[in-house]
Amino acid sequence: MTNPASANPQVHSRGNRSGWITHGGILALQRGEEVNERACQLFSDAQEAELTIGRSIDALVPACILVAARQTTTVRTVEDIADAAHCSADKIRRSRLTLQRELDVRVPVFLPTDLLPSIFESLSGRVPKSVRIDSYRLAEAAETSTDIRGSPSSLAAAAVYVAVGIRGRWSQQEIAKAADISSASIRNHYEALEALDSPATSSAD
C-alpha cells in the first residue's frame, strides 16, 4: 500500500518527518486501495498547486484521506480521522475546504442514512429487519426535519437506539461504540427522534 508521504519528498527536506509518523494510524482507517490511491493523488495535486507551502501537513494529509473516503462512499467521519491523526477536527475541516476551493474538489456529504449500514455491521449479532426498517425511517425523518440538528453519526446512532427501543437487544453504550461516538451524543438526540416518529413495535425476527 502506497504511503501518502512518499508522494511529497519536499516534506522531508523541510524537516517535517515527524509529522508523517502520526499518519500511520490514519492509514489503518482506510478501507481498500481505492481510498489510498485517491488520497495520494489528492496530496500530489495539492503539492503541485503549492498548497503545502505555509500550511500544516498534519492537517492536509488527513483532509486528503477524508475527501478520498467520501468520494468512494467509505464511511469515515472527520472525527474518526481527527482521532487517528491526533489533529483537531476543525483544522482538518479547514484543510478540506482549502482542497475544495483550490483544487475544485467535490466532497459528498454523508447523511444519517448513509451511516446506518456501518453501525449495523459493527453491532454484535444479526440486526433484525424490523430494527433496520425503523432505523431508516427515523434517520430519514431526521434528515427532512427543520427542528433537529446534529452530526450525521449522532443522528444515525440515535435512530438505531430508538428503533431498538423495548427490544433491548443492544444498550446505549453498545450502539454508541458501534457508531464511534459518545453515549452523550445519543442522549442529546434520541428524544427528539422519538417525538418525530415513534416506530411501531414489532416482534424480533
Description:
This protein is mainly α. Helix content is 62%, strand content 0%. Helix 4 crosses helix 5 (57-71), helix 9 (129-144) crosses helix 10 and helix 10 crosses helix 13. Residues 5-25 and 199-205 have low confidence and may be disordered.
Shape, principal axes of CA atoms: elongated
Strand content bin: under 5%
Mean pLDDT across all amino acids: 80
H/E element order: HHHHHHHHHHHHH
Primary descriptors:
62% helix, disordered C terminus, mainly alpha, 13 helices, 205 residues
How do you describe this structure in short?
The chain is mainly α and 205 residues long. It has helices at 9-13, 17-21, 24-27, 33-48, 57-71, 78-85, 89-103, 112-122, 129-144, 152-164, 172-179, 183-187, 190-196. The protein is 62% helix and 0% strand.
List the SSEs and their pairings.
Blueprint: H1 9-13, H2 17-21, H3 24-27, H4 33-48, H5 57-71, H6 78-85, H7 89-103, H8 112-122, H9 129-144, H10 152-164, H11 172-179, H12 183-187, H13 190-196
